[in-house]
């Protein structure tokens, strides 16, 4: 019961929701692929590739899983040929994705979502430190198991590797989830729901090591305290808020629909100062218009604003009207 998990399941247009499904399928298939199950191998490769192209950081998890097992097999000669083929296919899939991204996608990126949310280059040194500290602090109190327990387990396993028995299946997922976390820390995108897939990647690994080692149990209890006093109440509030906002949103749509259908003249609706900038469109007014047209079949209205239409404004529907006299 996490803020990010609630957000992606109650909210709209979150690829993490589908990503989690295929990540879970990949993990389950990978487990059975160890025993040379051909169906698991085929489904595992398919689900892995779907996951990779749903969200960029997934390639890190998939690629590391395959590479980890290939290296482990090189030193121990313990896997069947078909499972070795499975892991090679995962590494190749990750390599193909990153090649496409680096040589084709990346050169065409003009503006990223993170640039739209916050222009970090405009911050002075002090403001940047505050931004970074706030982001890390919020991530930590909202995701204590990922920000405290996960790094602690990974770092201790690296520093004291001689005292830990290597489990290639669990450890590859553990390190893959940790790298997934590092990607967003490196990008400095402190949006809560982006981390949600990591829970499904590392949960079994963390549970296994917490059960086996007492020190991890103490850290897990500390994280549970954080979760109880902060994350859980915030999650409940987020659930109620999203449910309430959805109801209010559709009540507003219903009112506007009835009003426009009874009005003699075309109804002017003003959305001033909401997502009309050059780079970022606010979801709610876009969906407000789409729902009015596509769900309620309303057409007797114009959306007006004192701001000029941005270059990336949706061309359809055609109800956007620039009104320089709008107040």
The portion of residues forming beta strands comes to under 5%
Apparent shape: globular
Number of contiguous helices: 12
Straight-line distance between termini: 43 Å
Helix content: 55-70%
Total strands: 3
Strand order of the largest sheet: 1-2-3
Helix and strand sequence: HHHHHHHHHHHEHEE
Major sheet details? 3 strands, parallel
What Rg do the Cα atoms give? 24 Å
Give the uncertain stretches in residue-range form. 275-281, 310-327
Structural class: mainly alpha
Mean pLDDT: 82
Account of the protein in words:
It contains twelve helices and three strands. It is globular, with a radius of gyration of 24 Å. The longest helix is centred in the last third of the chain and has 49 residues, at 214-262. It has helices spanning 3-10, 15-33, 38-54, 58-76, 81-105, 113-117, 125-142, 144-159, 168-187, 196-212, 214-262, 283-294; strands at residues 267-270, 301-305, 320-322. Helix 12 (283-294) links the parallel strand 1 and strand 2. The two termini are 43 Å apart. Residues 275-281 and 310-327 have low confidence and may be disordered. It has a three-stranded parallel β-sheet, with no helix packed on it. Helix 8 runs antiparallel to helix 11 (214-262). Helices cover 69% and strands 4% of the residues. The chain is mainly alpha-helical.
């Amino acid at each position: 019961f996490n803020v990010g998990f609630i957000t992606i399941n109650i909210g709209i247009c979150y690829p993490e929701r589908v990503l989690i499904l295929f990540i879970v399928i990949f993990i389950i298939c990978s487990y059975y692929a160890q025993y040379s199950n051909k169906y698991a191998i085929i489904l595992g490769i398919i689900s892995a590739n779907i996951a990779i192209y749903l969200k960029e950081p997934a390639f890190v998890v998939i690629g590391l899983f395959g590479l980890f097992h290939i290296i482990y097999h090189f030193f121990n000669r313990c896997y069947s040929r078909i499972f070795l083929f499975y892991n090679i296919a995962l590494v190749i899939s990750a390599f193909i994705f990153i090649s496409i991204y680096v040589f084709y996608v990346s050169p065409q990126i003009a503006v990223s979502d993170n640039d739209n949310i916050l222009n970090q280059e405009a911050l002075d040194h002090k403001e940047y430190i505050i931004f970074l500290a706030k982001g890390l602090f919020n991530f930590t109190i909202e995701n204590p198991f990922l920000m405290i327990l996960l790094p602690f387990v990974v770092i201790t396993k690296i520093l004291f590797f001689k005292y830990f028995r290597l489990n290639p299946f669990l450890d590859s997922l553990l390190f893959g989830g940790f790298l997934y976390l590092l990607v967003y820390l490196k990008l400095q995108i402190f949006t809560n729901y982006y981390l949600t897939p990591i829970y499904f990647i590392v949960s079994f690994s963390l549970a296994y090591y917490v059960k086996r080692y007492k020190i991890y149990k103490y850290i897990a209890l500390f994280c549970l305290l954080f979760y109880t006093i902060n994350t859980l109440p915030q999650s409940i509030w987020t659930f109620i808020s999203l449910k309430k906002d959805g109801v209010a949103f559709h009540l507003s749509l219903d009112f506007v629909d009835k009003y426009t259908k009874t009005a003699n003249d075309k109804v002017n609706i003003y959305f001033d100062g909401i997502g009309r900038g050059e780079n970022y469109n606010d979801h709610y007014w876009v969906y407000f218009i789409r729902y009015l047209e596509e769900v309620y079949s309303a057409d007797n209205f114009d959306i007006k604003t004192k701001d000029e239409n941005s270059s990336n404004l949706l061309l359809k529907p055609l109800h956007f009207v620039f009104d320089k006299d709008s107040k």
